[in-house]
Design goal:
Elements (H helix, E strand, L loop, with lengths): L1 H20 L6 H23 L6 H38 L17 H20 L18 H15 L2 H9 L8 H7 L11 H9 L10 E11 L3 E8 L4 E7 L3 H22 L1 H6 L1 H16 L1 H14 L6 E2 L12 E5 L3 E3 L10 H21 L3 E2 L7 E4 L4 E3 L5 E2 L3 H16 L2 H10 L9 H15 L8 H12 L6 H20 L5 H8 L1 H7 L2 H34 L13 H31 L14 H25 L10
Parallel strand pairs: 4-9
Antiparallel strand pairs: 1-2, 2-3, 3-5, 6-8, 7-10, 8-9
Helix pairs in contact: 1-2, 1-3, 2-3, 3-23, 4-5, 4-9, 5-6, 5-7, 9-11, 13-18, 13-19, 14-15, 15-16, 16-17, 17-18, 22-23
């Protein structure tokens, strides 16, 4: 009963310690593990104190039988201290930077089954990376990747992603939409990624569809073709007819997909964080944050209701272009796992031959596609974020259809104004104006040297911009320049530029030498065109002078007044310390740690003095002195305070509190 009582007492004590230390990562399973480890350590230390290990074995056994009853009592204080230390160690082992706002971080280690699955999957992925020679690129091994050319490295990365399968293929497909991060060779290779997903059996697919509809399928559909029209890693597509004769496409999410997605995303984010810590390229591109952004985008894509809402918004934005069609959504049948929409019958542009359209028809359709997307961007409406040739269909009636709305974007009023200024800077070839537009859009960090940034932008313009309007490739190159400089465009702005770069390639396939930037300038409306004409520039100068002229005329008087005040010592300055909340938070944290450390040391010293004192009253009914009880309580409190300071020092700082 003594051992069981000690264990129960230790569990309650450990729960109190966890609350006092403010631990975030020590869950109940980890807390019980700390109790077990601390109890074993305490018993071991007590046994070493009571038993003479230099004596013969028979004598040690006899001593153990003699002191067994007192061993439990003696071990208790050592168990307490050891458990507290183990709790601190577990908190530090599992600690991660706290995130304030946004999506919650991936927390896969919730159960033993999930932990074992992640470990097995991670070992499998690591073996694949090592087999393809990519471990040094992620900082998992020392050395450099041995590759004869960037094309070979891109090919090996693509085959590694294909071998890993699952969500790694999907992440590779998302990377293929980021020309600002990857070179053209990698974009081309990743564009070949196709998820080799096993098609669902008819029974599996039928159960998955029926689970999302609250009535028999026969009451909703007249027929369903259970041979999949397409099967991907996330969802499977079937053709069906509604009771009113409407031909639709059923997109159903694969059953049990969430666990697989969270497992693979946890591994991908962990690999990205390792690469960011251990490699130069990982730190430059901040691949940990990029991986988390991709993970968030992929989780959003799992909710098919979001894709349905985006399709409805895009259909509303494309109403001005009858030659571009967006499938209608059957909203009453759409759920988180099921999307029902009209079927668009046609062939992807990627599979069209040069003879499929006449040059006149191709130019007409290219104008309609360009207008539908650019007007949506400049009007603040929903636009397609990945309009590559596989997502654009030439329909049987000669019009174009857009599909797959997993990646879309929408600019707010401020972003539209900033993007317009940025396009104007590219059009005029002015690096200083381009720098100001990047500042306005919020991409440039305040610590960057403006002259250095302008020099990089001037070299970019000299290399890519010539007479007349710039090429569409200049947009992709600008994204790469901003990434190399460490700039972070707002997500929607970055999506818009990537969409324009992808749209440029699609329009080039549809109509060679299509002047995308000319069309952007034409569709930009009166504001863009007025800003790019000489007469409007004169008007703009006049407008600015109307505002700045009075200030300039009064400037000499103001300067004379300031000089007079300086001469007579009439100008004083005042510095406000700790005017920024971040500065106050840093000082408060330091002061708190100093106070806690001093309190801990003071309590510990006072407790030791009490324990060393033989005088004082005795607790009624016992031989224990009151000062001894107070000494042990003070020693416990001092230890808790000291461990709390240790946790605050060693635990990762929340990202929102870090000084940029």
């Amino acid at each position: 009963m003594g051992v069981i009582g000690n264990l129960l007492l230790m569990v309650g004590f450990a729960w109190v310690v966890r609350a006092l230390l403010g631990t975030r990562e020590v869950t109940w399973p980890r807390l019980l593990l700390a109790v077990v480890i601390g109890s074993l350590i305490g018993v071991t230390v007590a046994a070493l104190l009571l038993i003479d290990l230099t004596a013969p074995v028979e004598q040690q056994i006899a001593d153990f039988d003699r002191v067994r009853d007192g061993l439990v009592t003696l071990a208790l204080p050592f168990q307490v201290v050891a458990t507290m230390l183990v709790v601190v160690v577990l908190e530090l082992l599992f600690a991660r930077p706290a995130r304030r706002g946004g999506l919650r971080p991936v927390r896969p280690l919730r159960s033993l089954r999930r932990r074992s699955g992640i470990v097995v999957r991670a070992l499998q992925v690591l073996r694949i990376l090592i087999r393809h020679g990519l471990a040094p690129a992620l900082g998992l091994r020392r050395g450099e990747v041995v590759a004869r050319s960037p094309e070979e490295l891109a090919r090996r990365t693509r085959t590694a992603l294909e071998d890993a399968g699952g969500m790694f293929v999907k992440l590779g497909q998302l990377l293929a939409t980021r020309p600002d991060l990857l070179p053209p060779a990698a974009i081309e290779e990743f564009g070949r990624l196709h998820a080799a997903a096993r098609p669902l059996d008819r029974d599996e697919a039928e159960r998955a569809v029926a689970a999302e509809i609250d009535r028999p399928l026969e009451e909703v559909f007249t027929d369903i073709d259970w041979t999949p029209l397409g099967s991907a890693s996330i969802a499977q597509v079937h053709v069906a007819h509604l009771q009113d004769g409407r031909e639709v496409v059923i997109k159903v999410r694969r059953p049990g997909l969430l666990e697989q997605v969270e497992r693979d995303l946890a591994i991908a984010v962990w690999l990205a964080r390792v690469a960011q810590r251990r490699t130069d390229w990982g730190r430059i591109y901040e691949v940990g944050a990029i991986a988390e952004d991709f993970a968030g985008a992929l989780r959003t894509e799992l909710d098919l209701r979001v894709e349905g809402r985006h399709a409805v918004e895009m259909a509303s934005a494309a109403e001005r272009q009858p030659q571009v069609r967006i499938p209608g959504i059957v909203t009453e049948l759409t759920t988180e796992r099921l999307l029902v929409m009209d079927r668009l019958v046609g062939r992807p542009l990627a599979k069209l031959g040069p003879e499929a359209l006449t040059p006149e028809d191709a130019r007409h359709l290219a104008d309609a596609l360009c207008a539908s997307q650019v007007e949506a961007m400049l009007r603040g409406e929903r636009f397609h974020g990945d309009p590559h040739p596989g997502n654009v269909l030439l329909l049987d009636d000669g019009s174009l259809g857009l599909i797959d709305f997993g990646v879309t974007g929408r600019l707010d009023t401020f972003e539209r104004a900033s993007v317009l200024q940025l396009l104007l800077a590219i059009r005029l070839g002015e690096p200083s104006l381009l720098y100001e537009s990047l500042v306005a859009v919020g991409a440039v960090a305040p610590t960057r040297d403006p002259d250095e940034v302008e020099r990089h932008l001037a070299r970019f313009m000299a290399a890519h911009l010539g007479a007349g309007l710039p090429s569409a490739d200049a947009l992709t190159d600008l994204l790469r320049v901003t990434t190399r400089l460490g700039f972070r465009l707002p997500p929607q702005t970055s999506t818009m530029f990537r969409a324009l770069a992808t749209l440029a390639g699609t329009l080039e396939d549809l109509c060679p030498e299509y002047p995308l930037i000319d069309q952007v300038a034409a569709l930009g409306g009166a504001e863009f065109q007025e800003r790019t004409t000489p007469s409007s520039l004169a008007e703009m100068v006049q407008s600015e002078w109307a505002q700045l002229g009075p200030l300039v005329r009064r400037a000499p008087r103001h300067l004379d007044r300031i000089a007079t005040l300086l001469e007579h010592g009439g100008i004083t300055t005042r510095v406000r310390l700790f005017s920024e909340p971040a500065d106050v938070a840093v000082v408060e944290r330091l002061v708190n740690r100093v106070v806690l450390t001093a309190s801990s040391l003071g309590l510990g010293l006072l407790a030791v003095l009490m324990l060393a004192t033989d005088a004082g009253p005795v607790v009624a009914g016992t031989e224990v002195r009151l000062l001894e009880v107070l000494g042990w309580l003070g020693l416990f409190a001092g230890t808790v305070l000291l461990l709390r300071v240790l946790l605050e020092v060693l635990r990762p700082t929340p990202r929102a509190d870090r000084v940029p």
